[in-house]
Amino acid sequence: MGQSPTDAVEPDERAPSPAMLEAGRLLFAQECTFINGSTLLSTIPEAALPEIAFAGRSNVGKSSLVNALTGRLTLARVSNTPGRTQQLNFFDLGRRLMLVDMPGYGYAKAAKSEIARWTELVETYLKGRPSLRRVLVLIDARHGVKSTDEPVMKMLDTAAVSYQLVLTKADKLKPKELEARIRETEAIVAKHVAAYPVLQVTSAEENIGIGVLRAALTALAEPAAVR
Q1: 78, 195, 206, 215: which has the fewest C-beta neighbours closer than 10 Å?
Q2: What is the percent of the chain where pLDDT is above 70?
Q3: Strands 88-93 and 97-101
Q4: Is 28 domain-assigned?
Q5: Model pTM greater than 0.85?
Q6: What is the pLDDT of residue 6?
Q7: Who contacts 17 (Cβ-Cβ below 8 Å, separation ≥6)?
Q8: How many domains does the structure of the chain reveal?
Q9: In a domain, 227, yes or no
Q10: Mean pLDDT by 10 residues, the chain (227 residues)
């Protein structure tokens, strides 16, 4: 499942060196190809690369973050309608990393039976995917961790799946408000056994924290081929 959340955090992850930032930029500048949109476990692609999954409440900004990381405007579908992503979307990044955009939880304009199906698909995937290196649990910085986030975090704790909280839409808060939200969220992270101890703070719209997150994810990817 990748690095244990209890492992010591390298100081470079909080403030990546220029070399790490450049490595992240180069990886996420590679071709990023849509591989598969899976609504059934039987159609999920073979686990051939390290995977990073993006989870979060509906409309938290998952697709926007994927687009910002890869420098593409329309790689992952962005919508103002909660619950628009209804499948596990797999993107191959330069044959070194698989990005997985998952259905949002907490709200969706769909039948209860459909929501139940998505939930079962996502939970089964998260608990049993050997190539899954980390789950990024996105939290809207304006609202913080909500009651709908806690069951997902507890499920990942129980399954011993390494996950990392990422604040999105950080540009929507004033500096003091953001500082308070960061402290509040870090205190929550400390209470969860499978939560990776480094909180990422981002804004897809203002490009805040995107380079730092790229560098962190690059450390989880397949090494670059030596030429």
Answers
A1: 206
A2: 83
A3: antiparallel
A4: yes
A5: yes
A6: 39
A7: none
A8: 1
A9: no
A10: 44 81 96 89 90 92 91 60 66 95 72 68 86 96 94 92 97 97 97 96 96 97 82
What is the domain extent for residue 204? 11-218
Radius of gyration from C-alpha coordinates of the chain: 16
154: domain CATH number is 3.40.50.300
Residue burial 89-109, b: 16+ Cβ < 10 Å; e: rest: bbbbbbebbbbbbbbbbbebe
Q: For 94-106, write each residue's pLDDT tens digit.
A: 999 999 998 888 6
Evaluate whether residue 224 is within a structural domain.
Answer: no
Nearest one of 226, 208, 214, 6 to 97, comparing CA atoms: 214
Structural domain contains residue 1: no
Answer yes or no: are the C-beta atoms of 62 and 104 closer than 8 Å. yes
Q: Kindly give the residue spans of alpha helices, DSSP state H, lying in the chain.
A: 11-14, 18-28, 62-70, 112-128, 149-159, 175-189, 210-218
